[in-house]
Amino acid sequence: MEGNEPLLNIESLTVGYLTEEGILKAVKDVDLYVKSSEGVCVVGESGSGKTTLANAILGILPPNAIVLGGSIVFGGIDLLRADHRLRASILGIKISLVPQNPSSSLNPILRIEDQFCEILKHRRGVRDKRQCREIVEDLLRKTGIRDPDRVMRQYPHQLSGGMKQRVLIAMALSTSPKLIVADEPTSMLDATLQAQILDVLSDIKREGLSILMITHDLGVAERICERIYIMYYGEIMEFGSVEKILNKPLHPYTMLLLEHAFLGFKSGGRKETGYGDMKDLRIYKNQNGCIFSSRCPYAFSRCFAEKPKILGNSSSGVKCFLY
Amino acid sequence: MKKTKIGSYKIFFPRLQRIYRFIIEDRFLLAFLILLVSMIVMSVFADLIAPNDPYRINLAEKLNPPSADHIMGTDQLGRDLFSRIIYGGRYTLMLSAASIALALLIGLVVGTVSGYYRGLLDLVVQRIIDILMAFPTIVLAIALATFIGSKPETLVVAVGIAESPFMVRVIRSAVLGISEMPYIEAVKLMGYSDLYVIVRHVIPNIVYVVIPQATLQMGSAILTIAALGFLGIGIKPPTPEWGSMLNEARTYLMDYPHLLVFPGLMIFLAVVSFNVIGESLRIKLDPKARVTYSIVGIRVGSIFREPGGDRYGRQ
Fold it and tell me: Which value does ipTM take for this structure?
């Protein structure tokens, strides 16, 4: 790992959901690392376990989810095994979250400044209202809000979606974190706003923060990240640098994603590619062999019988029998 | 037409202007609001407004029809009916308000706890509420009132408990929805106490459900208080209370209908006012309601005017 220890290191993490049909594994044997001041993207379709991964990192999994194995090490501390107090001093402080849905993540009946002060009071012990206001003003300006004074006094419904997302990014920054986990921060916004929010995020990154971005959009990934992880049914199919993934994809699934991205763009909508659709997780519960084999155009007999392992080194790898 | 007038409000009190427009746009609501306010003022300042002592018996003038001296006439003991109606408002309205306040308290405590913590607690509490709801409000109130007595205070408790299941249900369902919102989860995760989260974040978010519900239930509480009075379980004569006045008047129904008409009319108007206002509030505070309500062609309530749309919500 080129000498420096990764800031966040996830090893063979497995997370399952308790359901009526038994345990469904939404994240399977995921290895992932984020170095400091690095942007890493996890890309995958809906239902591929991206959000579960993000929630597992932040320790906010829903009650019916259980971590079945693996470790999440942040700054030398294993978050899954650390005691409550130690975890509380990291989660939400050193690692903070930018949520997916900006409109339901702010309390509609509190002014922006009041919501901020609540965080600051609790996280940083800032009790003085004026001091708090100064900090908030700074943070809001950092996220590209031109008139923080006005925004601070407004209620969430008076702000646009993009503004709310900026406010939430500012909130994520308010605890001066080392790592920001952004769970599809732009999926609720239109294209122009997306670009603006991504600019804000890359500015943040330039200041030395690490970003772990969850997205389904390879274009978004390209703008923010140095490395990309491709996730499918809870498994990492391929990972590597942005250039490598986008220019020389190795895994058939990555090719599919890239193809979809451009096809979708040209035809202005969904287009059949002959790969078939993503099925319900339950169907694949007991499947042997490669998880992607049912949709893969290059699949051969071995793909249906055996599970592939990740091939490659720490900077790039692919989980496929083709290589 | 009244644009200029509203404009002046707009600059200094945007919220006041909203409330003003809210009321002024709905003439039906306005009428009942005025009626209700005058009823409340009348009851509060009964000492100043009532022309006579409501308890003074004057057998020489008993059972007089409405006249210049006694605008609603006199009852079987020659007491001035108008004064008794005014004082009666004190009992009927105040007791109803107090019992709704109690129901609201029960609703807020039980409803938020049940909706916020869920699980087994919620299950048990809701089954108890199911049992309470199985009885009609009035039957439950009668049972409780006979059990704990019919002093004004115990009456409030009886009606308050009888009214509370509906309040609990409404508040619980609102809390269920709110406490799943990411912003509530976030505050919880920060490590704030449950009490803090409930008081500061959950309850303020359900106010818009609670206010209309309380107003609507005021109508029901008035009916229950009056019914208890009428059945002789509630406030007892000679204390003037609209329901017990109806009971006293029952004997003279055929010969002196004015004794029955006036208290009945007051109960009717109070209940209708609360229902109209409650319904209006419910529609206007609910962002999803885009319907105009009307009863036999009279508009009872309409949604708050959307920017660019007309008062019926059409764009």
Answer: 0.72
